[in-house]
Every structure is written in C-alpha cells, then in structure tokens.
Write a structure and sequence with these properties.
The complex is a heterodimer of chains A (322) and B (274).
Chain A lengths: L2 E5 L2 E2 L2 E2 L1 H17 L3 E6 L3 H9 L4 E5 L9 H14 L2 E7 L2 H14 L2 E6 L1 E4 L2 E6 L4 E7 L4 E5 L15 E4 L11 E7 L12 E5 L9 H11 L2 E4 L1 H5 L20 E5 L5 H7 L4 E6 L6 H4 L2 E4 L2 H17 L2
Parallel strand pairs in A: 1-4, 1-6, 4-5, 5-12, 6-11, 7-11, 14-15, 14-16, 16-17, 17-18
Antiparallel strand pairs in A: 2-3, 8-9, 9-10
Chain B lengths: L1 E5 L2 E3 L7 E2 L2 E2 L6 E3 L1 H14 L11 E8 L4 H10 L3 E6 L7 H15 L3 E5 L10 H9 L2 E11 L5 E8 L2 E8 L2 E5 L9 E2 L19 H9 L2 E4 L12 E7 L8 E3 L2 H10 L5
The complex binds flavin-adenine dinucleotide.
Flavin-adenine dinucleotide (FAD) sits at the interface of chains A and B.
C-alpha cells in the first residue's frame, strides 16, 4: 500500500483529540498494509501545532498561508488533493468531524477517489467496515480506485499514543488559493468548559421531557459533578432549549462514553444511533414503555424533577464516603 | 431562480433491518423520500415562495432522482409538495455509487444551468454524506454543507448560510451558483429568509410540508422525463462494492432499578462507572 495522508485538526498548539483517532487508524493501517503515516496540518496556526503532531506521526507536513486564515472546503480541498498525489498517498483520511465530513468528499472528487464515510475499521487495504441505516447494520465495502478517501468514526479508535521519537516536520506551499467566491463570515462559538462530547468519559443528555432550557440547569449540575459533557436529543435542540451542537444521534454527535445518561429521552432510532456504543447506559424516563429502556443497562422509571436532584445528592454522598 | 434538488427514496427507517444472502433484505420494504431530501425540497420552496400566502411569482424547482423505476412514486411526492418538474434516471441501486450519481448530476446541471443545487446532507440508508461535496468539487463551485439557516441576499447573487459545526454555528457566504446541503434545523420556523416572505411569518417548524390534496392532483400532470445512465454520459461502473452486511449484536438486556439509591449503588459497585 502507498502512504496514508492523515488530515489533523488542531486547536492552538495541540492536535484536537479527534485527530488522535485518525492517527490511530492511520498507524494501524500502515502496520497492517504497509506505507507511511503522514500527518497533514493545514491553516492558520498549523506550524505552531506541528510539534505536537510530530509526537504521533513519523512525518508531518504543514501548510500555512495568509490566504488560509479560516477553514473553507474550497481552499483546503485542492491542497489536500495535491499533497496526496505528491506524497504517494493511496489513503487520505480525516476524522468524521464537521470539518472532516465537509472536506473529504470534496477531496475525493478532485482525486476521482472512492470514499468510505465514518469507518469503524479497515479489513484489507481496499476494504472498510462502516455503519449504515443509523448504525443498525454494518456494511463491508471494497473500493477499487487507486486512491481511497475515508473519514474515521472517532469512537471506534482509541486515541493514538505518542511515538518514542519526534517525527520530521516539513512545510509545503499552499499554491494558488481560490475560494470560488465563498467567504467565511463569522463563527458564533459555543464556549464551554466541559469536555468535548466526542471524548467525554461521561455524557448527560436531556430530551423534550425537560420542557425548557432553564430546566437543563439541574442536568448541568449533574454533569459538572461527574466531569461530564452535555448532550441532548433533537427534540430538545430543535426547540432551542440547548445549543444545536449538543445533539447526539445519527445526524448529531456520535458518542461512546463509559457512562451515558438519557434523561426524558424516548429513544428514537436516530438518537440511539449516536449513543448505543456507550459502555453503560442509564435511562431516566417517566414512561416505562419507552424504547430507551431496551438499550439501557439501568432504567429508572421516574420523573426527572424528582430523580435528578436525588441522584445529585446520592452521588455527592458516595463521593464524600470515599 | 432555478433550483435543482436531487432526491432519492430510502427504506422507511422504522422498519427492522433484515439480512438475506449477506445483504439487507428489501423485499416488501416500504419506501419514503429520504427525509433530508424532503427538507431540501421544502427549502427550495421557501427560497422561492411567499410563505405567508403560499404564492410563488417566479423561479423553478426541478427534482432529479437516480434510482429504480418504482422510485417514480416518491418523485411524485416531491412534485406534490410543490416542485415543478422531475427528471428520473432509471437504474438499479447496485449500478450506482456516489461518483456515478455525481457524474449524472453534472451532466444534468450542464444542460439545465440551475442557479442553485439544494440537497439533503445525507441519505438515511447509506448515511454516507458525500454527494453534495463531491458534486461541488467536480463543478468547481462553492459549497455550503449542513445548512441550518439560509438568507438570500437582496440581489439574489449570494446566500448567507448558517452551518452547524463542532463548537457553534459558522456563517459562510456562497455565491450563486453553488451547492447547498441541508441539515435538520433548516425546517425551523424562521430558518429560510428570501426577502419575500414577511419577517413576521412563522413556518410550522415541524418538518417538511405534507402534500395537499390539490398538490397531489397537480403532481399527476407535472412533467417527469425519464432516461438512462447512458443518456447522461454515465455508466453502471460503481467503484464501491458492498461485500457483505451484518447486524451488530444486540445489547444485553438491562434491568429496571427501584429507586435512585439503588441506581447509584449499582453504578458504583456493579458497572464500576462512578
Ligand atoms: C432524518 C432525521 C434525523 C434525526 N436525527 C436525530 C438525531 O441525530 N438525534 C436525535 O436525538 N433525534 C434525531 N431525530 C429525531 C428523533 O426521531 C426523535 O424525534 C427525537 O430523538 C425525540 O427526542 P426526545 O426523545 O427528546 O423527545 P420525545 O420522543 O418527545 O420524548 C420525550 C420523552 O420525555 C419523557 N418525559 C416527559 N416528561 C418527563 C418527566 N417529567 N420526567 C421524565 N421523563 C419525561 C417522555 O416519557 C418521553 O419518553 C431525527 C429525526 C429524523 C427524521
């Protein structure tokens, strides 16, 4: 197999934790099928994050340019495609984040590459396993193009560990930059001190039964007690109770924490698609017939108004007793 | 403004997945318009109409579907919602993949010269989320994926698109023509602003509109052109082959706990999760 070009997102001087899943995939693929892992960092701040990337990959390529101040698929895709060709890559990978999902299919089009989205594993150099039908089935696909693009499902790959020695960092030119008329206007950022949903050990999610955004405060108290990330169902995000990027599910975030709380969530298949992989699932719902109880390891039939404050005080007691 | 909306049918997601001979068994399945594609048709309508009185002075919505003969029924549904005409490229699902679909769409776009392509962000059967981005890449057009809000500029030469990304909402401006893929919240009550619908108007916010009886009658007379892959310069040569499909093992049965103290005790001692 040729090399694996692994696109890595970063945040300040460090890689985003989602990038470590991609590097773990890339390393496993290189070990099994040959080729070298090349981490690719593109955009403003790429140089500053390259030292961190070099801890995980034997080779790092950095592309930084004044014309790349903000991520745009239009400007990034030609760079990734060109570097894939120049570096003998036969696999181009990214984590299935908002950016990875936006960018990689465009790269695939430029390379005439077949693409497998959201893969759970690679079973041969051209064969991948990926969930379909909201995660209700696993499809094994074989791709016959010389170059293949993949996005990697973060929850399926343990974060890459550091290599013994630092990889070699090189820079590459951006080349001609053309945004094709697209411009970045602004980002309305959702600031949070809680861990990222994608890699939190505990997630506390609320649904329509929480009724108002104000009512989520008590779930946030539970989350902060457990160092958890906050999640929600589509019904709660659609209703504007909580930010859209809290949505867990087929079309929101895919999570697989050690412990997942589904509070006042019925358990629609699209929601289950995003959290079924959790190690332990707790459902708290007032209606014992809801489908959420079919995937829950522990179900409590109760109203959250009563159960959550009690849960907070019991957990505090437990913590105090240790 | 001329808007092209690619749509496909998908098996109703509420049906239980069954396997036969190593692949999903779709015999006797019931089919629906892919929900995100339905949202794309809804979006196209909202871009052109006056939502307050339901009138539309100008513009055209063309739906395109590449799929089996039977899909004509789901295509009619989108015409009944209000799209104006349809192009149905008849193939077997096994003969196409994302790149084949993109090739067909490219050729239709070359002939129709739409101002905008509006499509669903993903099909809820394959969950691949690729075609919009690939199409934009092949056309050399800008793309705005996962659109939750759209605002058409006064001169109709660009759109400001609110995109749900990790950590917030990104606003991106794209010119006309470009490719837009829509996310769930595009059907919110005020998600699409076209400068025609009064600011005070609220759409239902409960998903895409249902076809009215009048719409269903009208759809029967709307033009639907059918063709084959070859008519659009494409061939049945998918590069992706599905080798097999398996069902993941079901989760082990859980337990109902009596009260909160029991729950906490079990989480701590049994699950070792606290
Ligand atoms: C194309 C598509 C994609 C979708 N993607 C997603 C997705 O990614 N994620 C997602 O979550 N959904 C998604 N959905 C929506 C999904 O189908 C459901 O509509 C949604 O998950 C329902 O959210 P909910 O469980 O909060 O609401 P409901 O189904 O209304 O459930 C509310 C629950 O609250 C309980 N409840 C009410 N009051 C109380 C109380 N006081 N105490 C305890 N319990 C109470 C009720 O018993 C009920 O079970 C998608 C749908 C479509 C069509």
């Amino acid at each position: 197999m040729g090399n694996i070009l692994a696109l890595c997102e970063f945040n300040g001087p460090t890689l985003r934790s989602s990038a470590l899943a991609n590097l773990a995939f890339a390393r496993a693929a290189a070990t099994a099928h040959g080729g070298e892992v090349i981490a690719l960092l593109v955009g403003a701040g790429a140089q500053a994050a390259s030292a961190d990337a070099a801890k995980y990959a034997p080779k790092v390529i950095v592309v930084e340019d004044a014309g790349l101040a903000h991520y745009l698929a239009e400007t990034y895709a030609p760079i990734v495609a060109r570097l894939a060709n120049e570096n003998g890559a036969t696999v181009v990978s990214a984590t299935a984040t908002a950016q990875g999902k936006d960018l990689l299919p465009r790269v695939a089009a430029l390379l005439d590459a077949g693409m497998a989205s959201d893969i759970a594993s690679m079973t041969a150099k051209d064969t991948f396993v990926r969930p379909i039908l909201s995660g209700n089935a696993l499809s094994t696909v074989q791709i016959s193009t010389p170059i293949v693009c993949v996005t990697v499902r973060q929850t399926e790959f343990e974060p890459a560990t550091e290599l013994g020695s630092a990889g070699a960092v090189t820079t590459a030119a951006a080349g001609a930059i053309d945004a094709l008329g697209a411009t970045f206007d602004r980002l309305d950022a959702q600031k949070s001190d809680r861990p990222d949903l994608g890699d939190a050990k505990v997630v506390v999610s609320g649904g329509r039964g929480m009724k108002t955004g104000e009512n989520f405060k008590v779930l946030e108290e539970l989350a902060d007690l457990l160092g958890a990330a906050m999640g929600a169902s589509r019904a709660a995000t659609d209703a504007g109770m909580v930010p859209a990027d809290w949505q867990v599910g087929q079309t929101g975030k895919i999570v697989a924490p050690n412990l997942y709380f589904a509070v006042a969530i019925s358990g629609a298949i699209q929601h289950l698609a995003g959290m079924k992989g959790s190690k332990t699932i707790v459902a708290i719902n007032k209606n014992k017939d809801e489908p959420i109880f079919q995937v829950a390891d522990y179900g409590l039939v109760a109203e959250w108004e009563k159960a959550i404050p009690e849960l907070i005080s019991e957990i505090k007691k437990l913590k105090a007793s240790r | 403004m001329k808007i092209l909306v690619p749509v496909k049918r998908v098996p109703d997601p509420t049906q239980k997945a069954k396997i036969k001979d190593g692949h999903i068994d779709l015999t006797g399945a019931s089919w629906i318009v892919n929900t995100f594609d339905e949202y794309a048709v809804e979006t196209a309508l909202r871009l052109l109409e006056n939502g307050a009185d339901g009138t539309r002075a100008a513009g055209e919505i063309i739906v395109v579907s590449i799929g089996p003969e039977d899909a004509a029924k789901e295509i009619r549904t989108t015409l009944a919602m209000g799209a104006d005409r349809a192009i149905h490229v008849v193939t077997k699902d096994s003969e196409i993949d994302a790149l084949v679909v993109v090739k067909v769409l490219q050729s239709i776009i070359a002939a129709e010269k739409p101002d905008l392509v509006v499509m669903g962000k993903q099909a809820v059967d394959g969950d691949a989320n690729q075609v919009g981005q690939m199409l934009a890449g092949k056309l050399g057009w800008a793309q705005a994926t996962f659109a939750a809000t759209l605002e058409l500029a006064g001169d109709k030469k660009s759109l400001l698109v609110g995109r749900e990304v990790d950590g917030g909402v990104e606003y991106k401006r794209v010119p006309v023509p470009s490719v837009i893929t829509v996310d769930l919240r595009i059907v919110g009550s005020k998600s699409v602003k076209n400068g025609i619908t009064p600011e005070s108007h609220n759409y239902s916010g409960e998903g895409a509109r249902l076809p009215s009886l009048k719409g269903i009658m009208a759809a029967k007379k709307k033009p639907m052109v059918t063709g084959k892959l070859g008519d659009y310069g494409a061939e049945a040569a998918p590069v992706i082959k599905e080798l097999s499909v398996t069902l993941p093992p079901p989760r082990a049965a859980g337990q109902i706990v009596a009260d909160v103290p029991t729950l906490v005790k079990k989480l701590a001692d049994e699950a070792k999760a606290l």
